[in-house]
Design brief:
Blueprint lengths: L2 H19 L4 H4 L10 H13 L2 H10 L4 H15 L2 H9 L12 H20 L7 H9 L3 H7 L6 E5 L5 E3 L2 E5 L1 H8 L9 E2 L9
Amino acid sequence: MTEEDIRAAVTAERSEQVDLLATLRPDQWDAPTLCAGWRVREVVAHTTMPFRTSPGRTLVELVKAGGRFNRMADRCARRDAARMTSAELLATLRDNVAHPWRPPGGGALGALSHDVIHGLDITVSLGLGRRIPPDRMAMVLAGLAPRNIAFFGTDLTGVTLRATDLDWCHGSGTTVRGLAQDLLLVICGRRLPPGHLEGEAANRFTR
């Protein structure tokens, strides 16, 4: 898995998201996503923020949020979603499919994970049935270090997450099965709609 491979996957993921978002109805842009409190437009405002905001401005926003990243991200996403139309948000993503942004300490693989996760926040909540290509999904899972998993604070005690479409599992205990992309969302603390997971402990991670 080379840097070039990862950057190509980032560009492909963003390009596919552009195509999908372009088909959404106005009411779908205002539909809730798996990100608590965020509609589709807030999620897109968040994923495109690095393309519109300089590192210096981001630092200012972080200071204004008392150094709390999640608070900053929420405040900026809500503000930008209110200021920008869906067409403007979509154009920003379209114009930056090859943008070299990397999250601090995350590298290109962190950028891919960021885009994949938030894309799933949209498509799973809307029931669009989009499947992330297996090779791209494998890249994201390969980049899951313990510190990444710990960041989300999800209680995975006593549970084995086992993918039904890839040779991948995580943890130990009662098995919860699902598509790799759905298990990724579980790790990220998302509550999935019914029918995405199987196993005795599946209800711990569903709505």
